[in-house]
Amino acid sequence: MVFLFGFLPAVLVCYFLLPARWRTGRNTVLLIFSLAFYCWGGVARLPALLVSCVGNWAAALWAAPGHRGRKAVYGIALAGNLVMLGYFKYTGFLLENLQALGLDVTVPSIALPAGISFFTFQAMAYLTDVYRGTIPAERSLPRLTLFMAFFPQLLQGPILRYGEFAPALTQRRENSEDAAAGATRFCFGLAKKVLLADSLGVIADAAFSSGDRLTMSLAWLGGIAYTLQLYFDFSGYTDMAIGLGRIFGFRLPENFNYPYISKSASEFWRRWHMTLSFWFRDYVYIPLGGNRCSRGRQILNLLAVWMLTGLWHGSAWNFVLWGLYYALLLMGEKFLWGKFLEKLPAAVRHAYALVLIIIGWVLFRSGSLAQVGQMVAAMFGAAPGGLWSAETAYYLHQFHWELLLAIPASLPVKQVLEERLAARKGKAAQMLLILGPKVLGFGLLGWSVVRLLSSTFRSFLYFQF
Q1: Boundaries of domain holding 70
Q2: Is residue 450 part of a domain?
Q3: pLDDT tens track for 103-127
Q4: What global pTM score does this model have?
Q5: 126-131-137 Cα angle (round to 5)
Q6: Can 313 be counted among the known catalytic residues?
Q7: Least buried of 114, 144, 281, 349, by fewest C-beta within 10 Å?
Q8: Which among 67, 313, 397, 400 is annotated as catalytic?
């Protein structure tokens, strides 16, 4: 509520009061508000972001083509990024495992700077692109800091590339059409989070904390609920970020392309969190050799990428298991059953992919390896509470509207309707195409505000990464 009715109106007023020709002034407004936004969670976390901005800005200037010793500078800067990420995110995990092995070590309490996984990956991509000569080094520290700290996507992505973001810093042109489209998308994203994700999270939390009451039906319901919750939570944030970016004249990259219509695990990862998938492809998989090497080396490359993908999401063994799970699936589809899969009917392939995706999210959501075993065993018949329970019926009844709305909302229904309306030549169809999403978005905004006022807000799931 503070963001919607305090911070956001303030930044919009300050930004648009300045003439459009004062591009540096408008960038400065965004930079100041972005840093203030980050400090809202605690000023003590700001130094990590600023050190990353200044360090990578200076290193890129030296690592650009034509400078002596640039390879060493590039290597040191990359190592510095990894050390900072490792210290904040993985120190506790490492020491906890050493402690479990019997070593007498103390596990410190280290506050994780918000969004560190996202802004560190952006910094490493920028540094690498400069080193490769793909883009020139940015000489303006404020511009690079705005790229790193841009508040709409700072905490949860999408992961930006400086080569795509930089031109808009000086050449963007804000207009009312983009502002209206951006505001509409923001409203849809807010509704995804508040109206769907938060409600579905109640079911998921109940299933994953049911213990000995867990039944086969509740395990599947909880897995499906979390599958939908995570999508609407994360894609809702992305919609809000893209919408806000468009209001300010920035075109942020898409991060989701209806992933739950996928017909294989490989297709799923071409549609889910696309900016992260492309980052690992361009900065890890291809430099390791990609597909242009022996089969054995390809397998090692895939294992390395997916181990890192799992660890990027969290410092726990269930995330490592989740990464290895997808590594095995992708290798299987690539080397073993991929051709057979392509011959099956589309409905069968879709069912195959959905079952694997749901199981994958169960691994992702579980708090421990023991819970992973309990949930997966329950889904396939070995549930301590049997097949069915009144608890399952209760959640199906209490949240049936959310479950029913979530299914079409996760499919390209809106896209199909827009294409059909665009194909019609009547004025009514055109008016509906132009005004329909805006009116619906305004209604969803009001409904979301009412829900925020009447219930407890749940933090975005990807904030912890």
Answers
A1: 40-173
A2: no
A3: 888 888 888 898 999 999 999 999 9
A4: 0.95
A5: 60
A6: yes
A7: 281
A8: 313
